[in-house]
Amino acid sequence: MKKLLIPLFALGAAFAVQPALATDGETLFKSKPCVACHTVDNKMVGPALKEVAAKNAGVEGAAEKLALSIKQGSSGTWGPIPMPQNPVTEEEAKILAEWVLSLK
């Protein structure tokens, strides 16, 4: 029984720790519910992330505003469908916002 439990515990721990290790925007994006409504290149439920980057290019405070929208949700910016709050930390929201704004 122990021979079965130890590998299962190690596997579970690896999956639990992996999202915490995601420090680049793309990996973090893929590990969060963002992918249910957004893609990088094409509009889905929400806008393409490249559209978000283009709309905010050169805008003062865009990263902070986008990070807040990612964490707390938003409505009316891209149409009638609201974006819900996302289960991200402040740091993850900043990483995601900066990554989105870096897309060309």
Could you give a short description of this structure?
The chain has 104 residues and is an all-alpha fold. It has helices at 2-21, 25-31, 49-56, 62-72, 90-102.
* Total number of helices: 5
- Percentage of residues in strands: under 5%
Poorly predicted residue ranges: 13-20
Q: How does the major sheet shape up?
A: none
Q: Give a count of the beta strands, DSSP E runs of length 2 or more.
A: 0
- Helix content bin: 55-70%
Comma- or semicolon-separated keywords:
single chain; 104 residues; mainly alpha
Provide an overview of this structure.
The structure is a single chain. Mean pLDDT is 86; it is low at 13-20. The longest helix has 20 residues, at 2-21. With 104 residues, the chain is mostly helical. It has helices spanning 2-21, 25-31, 49-56, 62-72, 90-102.
Give a topology summary.
Layout: H1 2-21, H2 25-31, H3 49-56, H4 62-72, H5 90-102
